[in-house]
Amino acid sequence: MIKIIKGLIINSFYLYLIQGLNYLLPLLVLPYLLKVLSPESFGVFAYSQAFVQFLILIVDFGFNLTITKKISSLSEDSPEVVNIYWLISFIKFCFFVGLSLLVLLIFYFVPSMEIYRTAVLWSLITLAGTVLFPVWLYQGLNKMKMMSIINAGSKLLTFPFIFILVKEKSDYLPAVIIHSGSYLLAGIIAGTLIWNQKRYRIIPVKDLNFRNAMAQIRYSWPIFLSNSAISLYTSSLTLMLGFYGTATQVGLLGAIERIIRVLCFGVYLPINQAAFPTLARLAAIDFLSARRLFRIIFYSILGGMSMVYLVFILMDSYVIHYFLNEYANIEKLLRISIFTILPIALGAVCGQLGLVALGDNNHKNIFSKIYLIVGLVSLPISFLSIRYFLVEGAVFSMMLTEGVIFVAMFAFVKKYRFL
Known about the structure:
Blueprint: H1 2-36, H2 39-60, H3 63-72, H4 79-109, H5 114-132, H6 135-140, H7 144-158, H8 160-165, H9 172-195, H10 210-244, H11 247-285, H12 287-323, H13 330-337, H14 341-358, H15 361-415
Helix pairs in contact: 1-7, 1-11, 2-4, 2-5, 2-9, 2-10, 2-11, 3-10, 4-5, 5-9, 7-9, 10-11, 10-15, 11-12, 11-14, 11-15, 12-13, 12-14, 14-15
C-alpha cells in the first residue's frame, strides 16, 4: 500500500510539475485576454470555446474513462492495445467528419449565429487535435508524465504568440486560432510518437474488428450519456445566453466560468488523472487497499480546494480591480460563484474515482444516471433562469446543478462504503 501511495505521489508530482505549465500558461493568458479584449470580443472567444467543448464531448464519447479502464487491465505489449488504438481512432475520426459538416450547415444557415461563425469554424482545429491525441491510451498505459510533457510543450510553443498577436480589443480571432493550435500541435506530437513505435504502424481498415467497435460504443454509451447531459448543461449556459443575451453578457459569464475552471482543474485534475488507472488496477486485486487510497485522495482534494477558495477570497478585490474592471456587476457574481470549485472537484472525485474506478458496472450505471438525470432536469431550469435573469440566472443554475451532482455522488459513495 505504501509503495502504491508513493508511486501515486510521484506520478502526481510529475503531473503537477509538468502540468504546472498547462495551468500556469492559461492562468497568465486568461487575465491578459480579459484585460486586452473587450467584453464583447471575449464573449465571442468564450462562445467558440464552449461550442467546441461540446463537440469534443461527442468525439471523446466517454472513451477517456471506459477505454482507459480497459487498457489499464492489459499488458502494454498486448496486440489488443494496438487494435483498440486504431479502432477508437477510426471511430473518433468518423465523428469528427460528421460533426464538422453539421457545424458548417448550422453556422452558414442560421443568421443569428453569424457573429460567432468565424471563431467557431477556426475552433474546429481544437477538435482535430483531440482526435489525434489518444488521452485514453496514455492514461491506460500509465504514461501521464509523457502526456503532460506533450501538452505543456505545445502550450509553451503556442501561447506566447497570444501576447504578441492579441493587442486590440477586437483581436479575438488570433486568440481562438492560437488556443486551438496548441491542441492540434499536441495531437500531432502525440500521433508522431505513437507512429514511431513500429507495432502501432497503421493497419488496414478491413482488419479492424467492427463488431468490437460496436461493443466499445455500447460499453461507453452510459458514460457518454452522463457526460453529454452534464456537458450539455455546462455548454448550454453559454449557448443559451448567446441566444437571449449579448456577446458582452456571454463574455461576463465566460470570465467567471474560466476563473472557476482554472482554479478547480489546477488542483484536482492531475491527481485525478494519476489516480484513476492506479485505483482501477488496485480495486481488481485488493479492494480494501484501493478504498483506503480513495479516502486519502478525497480528503486531500477537499483540503486543497478549501485552501484555493480561501486564498482567492482574500485576493478577489485585486483580481477584479486589475483584470475585470470593464465587466459590470462581476464582483458580486464572482464572489458567490467561486464556491462552486468545491462541489465540482469533490463531485468528480466521488464519481470518477469512486463509482467508476472502484465500482463495477452497476456503480458505473449509477454514475451515468446521476449526470443524466441532473443534467436533463437542469436544462429547463437553465432555460427559464437565463431567459428571465440572463447572467445571474446562468450562475444560479451552474451552482445549483454542481451542488446537486456532488450531493448525489457523495451519497452513493457513502452508501457503498467507498468513503
